[in-house]
Every structure is written in structure tokens, then in C-alpha cells.
Amino acid sequence: MNDDKLWINFENVEECIIRKEWRNTWDRRGYVSVDRTEGMYSTWSELDYEGDNAVAVRRASCTLESTLSSMVTSPPGTSTLMPSATTSSRSPSLMHKGVRRSILRDIGMTLFVEMTPKKKVMYQKLVNDHRKINYWKKLAKKYKTEFIRIQSDIRLFRTLEKTLSPSGITILTSILRAGKKRPKGRRWTEKEKVIALSIFKQSPKTYKVLRSLFPLPSKRTLTKFLSNFPFLPGINLHIFKQVASFVEKLPESHRYCTLMFDEMAIKPDLVYLPHIDMIVGYEDHGNRKRRNVVAKVAMVFMVRGVWANWKQPLAYYLSAGGTSSAIKCMIEEVLVNVNGVGLNVVATVCDMGSNNVKALKLMGATYSNPWFDYGGHTVVTIFDPPHLLKSFRNLLMKYDMEVPVALGGQEVTLKATWKHLEQLYEDDGKNPFGRLFYLTEKHVNPKGFAKMRVILAAQVFSRLVGLGLSGLVAKGLIGSDGLGTADVFLSLNDLFDSLNGDAASKIEEKRRFKCPMTRKSHHHKLFTEMNHKISRWKFIDSKTGKQVHPPSQKGWLATIKGVQLLWQRFWHVSKYFNTRSLNQDPLENLFNVVRQNCGCNHHPNAKMFMAALKTSIINGLLSSSKKGNCEADNCNLLTDINDIMSGVFSQGEVKGTEVCRQSKKLRKISPVHLGSIPFIAACVAEDIMKNNSCEDCQSYIISSSIPPSERFISFEISEKCIICPTEELVLVTEQCMNASKLIMEKVGYEQNICHRLATELRGQINFSFFKCNDHKGKVHRLDEPSPPESGLRYSND
């Protein structure tokens, strides 16, 4: 053998090791001759191992330089070549090759082919075991590196937990987990979907931008997730079943609750939901009745714990303008189901809307006796104090008041008027060092939405403003009647604080009434004094000079008496009584969250309201706005997301709707609009011919030429490759549309409207022009709602 050449064997394809004792050995599997002096190599088909030097290489793609650098050779004439320590420590598989050779030497053999079949099996098992050992060693090294990286991530997350919110931690964790996966291989937890859904509802455009930057759930995933939570108008039994499971775990004192109800204005609009085969937007009182009138308000019912910080929306109704009898039926229906789950309703809370007052009167409650009996329980009626405060502010802006005030040990009648507040605002504006009072033009002259802001009314009827009016009287800037106005402001400040009492830690001397009611608190004396004082206030119309009797004055008296009745009945349940639990702040906060979930649309229709309400409940009624109409209620939902989304319900919502715009009267199709009928017929023809190559169907559905009546779609046919329908199909389409208009006027508000419409059309329309018996059922299959992307959209615009 030439000493300037090395023989390289390619029978294995990983790394190189040095082989020895090749004498008198013959192989035909292909070899490479490497010339160390010239750097050339060539393939040989046969090789006689007569030389002393031969090297086996397992990496066929190695270059000459890397091959030579990884081999250890001996000087010419040396008969044995041994692997270097460097090569052994650097290449585990090289050692594995050595192990195989050592096994052969241990049994006194040099080649695998010389073994008996039994020895071959045992030999192969030993080799496989060594391979497994090497594999687990590599795996252990890999996981050791991964463990070190995870430890570093854990330290990072512990640092972030101190600065980020729980929702931020959840989103960050999902981004890190899903970032390494393909879009279709990502999986999301329910909590991650809830957070993503809340972002999407508030601003779809922002969510689209965020999704282009970070891995987030798709819109389809969020829509499907929301559809798993059915919440239709009326009583939803699965909601009450979930509430019942939580009530069983509550102690007896935590089951006492108030029933709040209020309405939110919605946009009159009709939207078709294919999954329930029903048009939403009509007046819907749940299982009781649907009427052929378009809803304008949504009446929502919610319960709140009196001695525990929990709340739960229970039901809602769509109404054209709730009548007193309808509201009475709603209250009775909700009370039956609430009492059925184990809750004890002790009071109702609502505003002083005329229909609400009449409904409570039908239940048996009056201003003098603010309670009614239902189902063996006595329920006290409370009017929302924030609404009463706003109403009283509006009254004072419109009427003057005659107020009895004690001066110098004698009682005198003074005239309280809104002009005194205007004079205080004007005098405060002359201060060269800035205003002392936090009064603005919105406080003194509220207009529009400012009249609905509770905070503006509360800041007007405050202790600071009352003392400021007394100061103007002392300076002589206003007459002694200003003391009457100051007395009204100070009295309403104390009364509002006493009906808004919360945590005892907030007690201060100047706000000693804004604390829980106890047996020895100042509330009892104040309620007695205010009951006597408000009953003697007189409202005078400045134009006519006659006395008026506003409802809000009676509302204050009824609310004070209702609170006193609740204390007399339940003072033994707990040592304290948070009077703040007797307002409807949680319901107002719910409406605030619903509007946020509608994005920029602050006047949602019925479909948007339903979706936003479900999102609010799933998201735990979390609000991102700090400028709401009332303070945070600090209450948690009685149910959580895991229980809300668990279970299989009979009702459900799927994505996609078909819009039917609402008008006062459905119009007939005008001759101008008739030109668009061929276009609709073309869509029908395309739907029928989808995945259908039947020539008979084509002859009945598709026209080879464009008839004169279809000039309207001639451009679309040529440019967009739209199917040209036959005149018979256009005529049938026109008849179906005209008949659908008449049918929708009568039964559009009913359930299963698509099935009802299909039944009516089958009896009125002649489909005999289509004579293909094989596919005739595809044309007549109208009782199943089509998906919105392939179905027709009917509109009366």
C-alpha cells in the first residue's frame, strides 16, 4: 500500500474512527482514496486491505480538509493506528463505533458476518442498548439546558408579576407560549379568550393591529367562544341552575339580596340570526310573548348581596317601551325564579320612572307603605338615591322652595332658589387666586348628558357648597334666604351620605354619616329628622305661584321609610348594615361596560346589546373607564367563567347574521329596484350550481345569452364572471320577494321564521320550470337557514 494515501470507508455515515487489522480482508462496497500530498480523492469499487493504514469514515459529506483533520495517522510503516483522546472526547458516536469493535474483540471475532444467527441477535441488542444510552444522554443534556433557561424565565416572570396586572401576565404568557407554534397549532385557555374578547369588543381595529404584532386568537375563535354562552331574552334556566349551585355554598346571611332593574335605550333595528331562525329586535319578553313591534329599550334584572359583596345579572327583556303591567309580569317572573334558587330578596331597587312606580303600585306598594308581599315574603321597595338626587337638582332648577329653618330659637320660612348657587359661582370666579369651590358651568347650568351625571349633582349638594352659601349670607352678598338654600344643600348632603354608607374605615367627622348603619349610629336620628323636614318642604312654581307636588319628594320619604323597615326586620342578621347596597350602582356599571363593549357605537341595536351583555358577563363585568356615572361597586360575580362556559345548553348562538333594516312600513318593490332582481337571481343560480355539473340543471338555471331584462347585471357578468340566470328563474325570484314582503309583515316577529317562510312560499310559488328530478330538492330546500355568506339578504330599504 502507498504510504501517501489513506483509505476511507463509507459503510457508516456519521463520523470517523480509526480501524486496524485489515489484512487479508476483502470488501466491494465502495471506497475513497485520499491523497494527502495532492488533496485529490477518487472512488474505488474494490479494495484489497494489504496495507497497514485504513480509516473508516461515517460522514459521507465531509470534505478532504475536515476528514484529514479528524484522523490520527501514524508514520509510514506503523502497523497499528489508535484514535486520539481529542477525537474520542469530541465524538460520542465515534466511541460508540469503538464499543462495537470492542464487543467483537471480546468474543474473538472481527466481522459481523462471521457470527452465528443467535450471536447476531444478541450483538444487535447490545448495540441498540448503547444507542439508547447515548440518546438519553443527549436528551438529558438538552433538558438541562432547557431547565436553566426556564429558571431564568421564572425569575423574569416573578419580577413582572410585581408590575403587571393579572390580565397582563396572562396575555404575556400566551404570547410566549404560542409564538413558537404555527397559527393552526395554537391553543388558547378560556381566560386568554376572555381577555382577547374584551379587547376585540371595545375596538376591533385595535385588536386587528395587535394581532398583526402578537399571536392572539382569531375573530372566528372569539365568535365561536361567545356562541357557547347562550343568553336570550327572558328567563334562561341554565343561568339560574348555575346560580343555584353557588347559593348552596353560601351561608344564610349572604343569601339576602336586593333585586335591581333598569332599562337601557337601544337602537330600533331588526337582525336575523340563522342559528335560532329568528329575527331579534322585536319586543321579546322571553317565554311569555313576542310582539310585532320593534324594541326600543332593554330591561335588565340583577341581584346584589346585602351583607356580601356579590352581584349577578339574571335576565333581560326587549321592549318597545315597558308598560306598568308588562314590568309587573317581569318582576313576578324573576322573583319566582330567584326564590327558587335559594336567594332571599328583601328589597327592590329602581329609579322613579312612571312605569316603574305604577308597576310597584300594581304589586301592592305605595309611597306611604313601600312594600309588597309575594310568595310568602315581604319585599321593600327602594328608589335609587343617586337618581333621586339628580331629580331633586332638576326640581330646584325649575321651582323655588319654601323651607322651614330655625333661626335664633324661632322657626322661620325661607325661600331656597337655584339663583343663590349661580351667585356663589359668579362670586367665586372673581377670586384672583383661583376658585375655591369645584363648581363649573356644567354644575350650574347642566345640559344634555350632563343632567344625567350623578357626580355633578353630588358635588352641588355638598357640605362645602352649603357652607359657602352661608358665607355669602354672612358677607351680605345675598339675603337671609340664602340660609334656606344652604340648609337644603347641607341636609341633602348628609342624607345622601347616610344612604351611601360603606366601609367603616372611611369615617370622618365631616362625613360621619357615610358609614355602615349600626344600632348606635347617627342614621336613626337623621332619618327621623329628614322624614320630618322633607315632608314640610314646599315647591312653588315661580310663574304661577302655585304649589306643586313632585314625585321625587315622595320618593325620598318612601326610601327613608323603606330603609328603616329593613333595619327593623334584619338588624339581628348582622351588627352593621351597608346602606350602599340599596342603590343600583352595579346595574349602572353594567350598562357602562356594555357600552364600552360596543366600541364607538353608544346606541347599539338589539343584536349588539345581546353580544355586549354576554361579553360583559363572561369578562366578569370589568370596566376600563374611570369616568363612569357612578363609583365602582366592589362586587364580584356570583358565577365564574369556568361555570358559565361549562355544560351543554339547548340554546346557542353561532356566528353570522343577516340584517333586515327596520322601517315604519315594509315597502313594495319599485320598478327601479326591479332591475336588481336579476342580480339576486344570479346569486341563487350560483348557489344551486355550486359543485353541480348537471347539464339539465344548467339548461333550466343558466341562460346562454343576456335577456333585455338583465342589462342591469351585464357588466358584472362580463367583468366578474357572474352566472346569467334564465328569465324563468328571475320571474320566480321576483315572486318570492314580493310574497316574502307580505308574509314578513304578518309573521316576521315569530320564531322559526325561515321554516314558516319556506312553507308559505311552497304553497304560493310555482317551481315547475325546474324539471331536473335529480336536483329538484336543492331548489326546494328552503326550510333550513342558509349561512350568511351563501344566503340571500332581504331588506326593505
TrEMBL record:
Residues 69-93 are annotated as: Disordered. Residues 233-364 form the Transposable element P transposase-like RNase H domain. Residues 582-612 form the Transposable element P transposase-like RNase H C-terminal domain. Residues 69-92 have a biased composition (Polar residues). It comes from the Eukaryota. Residues 387-505 form the Transposable element P transposase-like GTP-binding insertion domain. This is Transposable element P transposase.
